[in-house]
Please model this.
Amino acid sequence: MSGRQAVELTLPIQAEFLPVATACVEQTAQAYGMGRVETMHLMLAVEEVLSFLAARLSGGHHLLKLHCRNGRYYMEVVCRFPSNVLPVGAFNITSTVSADDEQSLAEMGLLLAARTADHLAVSAKNDDMEIRFVKNRQYPALPTIPASVAMQGSLRIAEPAPELIKQFAARVAGKYERQAPAYFQSPGKVADMVASGDYGVSLVTDGKNNIMAGIFWRNGKQMAEAAGPYVFCAEADAAVQAVEGCLQKLARTSVLCLVVQQPTPDMPAGYFEPLAQDGSVLYRQLAEDNGTLVYAHPIFADYLTDGYRNLFLPRDIRRVENQGEKQSLHSAFAVRMDRPAGRVVMESIWAGEDALAVVGQHIQALRQEGFREICFHLDTGVPEQALLSPALSVNGFKPAWIVPWGGEGDILVLAHREEESC
Model:
């Protein structure tokens, strides 16, 4: 969605301005239609960040830039400040608070702020540091709807009106249940996701506007990532029409490729090639790929070289390794959990010297919670992430497949092998 609503505020990093910062977040969230609970979580996040900074930055001349953006189905709050004093390690799911440790007590507020966010990102550029908190809107519970209906009339590609999108989401949740992404449990959310422009959908209906098939995807800068196709009739052509409609829409964009994670058995043959050996990830190139830089540690460089050769993708691989330069002391990792499927994806928030130990702590905690599949998404477009390779390798992660343009650059997907971990 172009021209998204945004509110910006610049204020001194001083405790006296805490009410100003929290009031800005509260009133902006209300204007965006966020619920009370989501609003309180965002207010808490900003309050804890500003409180922490105010206690450590003296002089009163430092400024905090607050940016609140309306994503329609979520709200994003960005805090930007001119220092690297934020202890990123507090954002790990393995972080704990001890009454005997003054430092951990001081960081308790940041830990709480991280726990309340649905998505968290930390970045640094020059002398500025930035932390992003994202909170999803809450939507009503799923209405009851039959998973399938008898087809009436011929199949056709339909314009994705909100009511059709909601019908599609409800049918997906009814038929595919836990095999489908969790957002399908909230049809209104799916409609807002499409309206935001972040996502797209191709719908196939019968003559009575009953949804017969569909495929849903997230629009990225260079890559689209799809879920489906989902089919609700016995007509073999339904899935074909849904996929064809998706490809036609993406052909009018700047997207270079389409990736399908966990495709359904209804995926028609001949449209994609596998990225993962087991066929759980499919790929189709949509436009000419003129290449990009890939930052790779020698540990994974040979795998990447062979992978790009097999995919016929032009890439300039730059080998990256620590040559004695000073790194940040602490690491932080984001974790996306799919508890029903027993799957989890780890991503880097911040790379630091303690990565070996912190990665190991995450693996131990996730295994204890019963997760069978643990993957790490290593962004080859970020040189700092390449430095994590030794820590990931020692902890039992091995290359599994490459997702072109899945992040700032390509994503190297690493799968954890429990028997090889340290």
